[in-house]
Structures are given as C-alpha cells and as structure tokens.
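Technical annex, item 7. During the second reporting period the consortium partners agreed on a shared format for inverse folding records so that results from different sites could be compared directly. Each record opens with the tokenized structure and is followed by the designed sequence. A conforming record, contributed by the partner at site C, is shown below for reference.
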C-alpha cells in the first residue's frame, strides 16, 4: 500500500511540474507573421536590422510544428525577402515601417509575455 501511495504522489508531482517546463507556444498564424518579420529583418535592401531575437523566436516556436505549417513559415520568410529585394521607394518605406513597427512589437510582446508569465501559471 505504501508503494502505491508513493507511486501516486510521484505521478502527481510529475504532472504538476511538466507545465512549468513547457514553452509558451504561439499560434501558427503568429509564427508565420514572425517568419515574415524575420525575412524583412534579414533583407539587405531594407538596411541593417538585428534579426537575432526573431531568429531565436522562429526557431524555438517552429519546433514540433506540422510540416504544412513549417512550409508556410519558410514560404513567408522567402516571400518577405523577395518582396524587400524588389522594393522601391514607397513600398520600401512601407516594409521598413512594418519591420521597425509591427515586427519589433511582436518580438517585444512575445519576450515580455514569456518572461512575465511563467509557463504553467
């Protein structure tokens, strides 16, 4: 009987601890949007931008995703790089504004949420 009690206690402790180690996952559409931002951040035509945080975010969030989602993520990044590479004047300004506005907000929101809210809370 004592072994059964210890087994149950160990199982409960393990199940309670598991969510604390799980990473917060964003939706598939948010991951695709982040990948587009990564493509814009890496585009040479738009000027320099630090893509380190976006690279880490996309890599971490991309793990374990459905292959179709991974394909969409890769396509969004390629498309953004291509669009930025061909951009002139107004479109270029629009893409820079997207990269420096919405994309930076996306990274800041994601990093703040993962720091402010412990996983499993």
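Designed sequence (site C submission):
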């Amino acid at each position: 009987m004592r072994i059964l009690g210890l087994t149950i206690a160990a199982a409960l402790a393990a199940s309670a601890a598991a969510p604390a180690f799980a990473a917060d996952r964003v939706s598939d559409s948010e991951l695709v949007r982040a990948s587009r931002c990564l493509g814009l951040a890496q585009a040479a035509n738009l000027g320099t931008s630090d893509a380190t945080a976006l690279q880490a975010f996309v890599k971490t969030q991309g793990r374990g995703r459905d292959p179709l989602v991974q394909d969409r993520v890769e396509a969004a990044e390629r498309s953004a790089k291509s669009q930025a590479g061909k951009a002139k004047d107004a479109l270029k300004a629009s893409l820079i504004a997207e990269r420096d506005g919405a994309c930076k907000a996306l990274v800041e929101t994601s990093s703040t949420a993962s720091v402010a809210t412990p996983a499993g809370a």
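Residues 24-116 form one domain. The chain has one domain: 24-116. All partners now use this format for quarterly exchanges.
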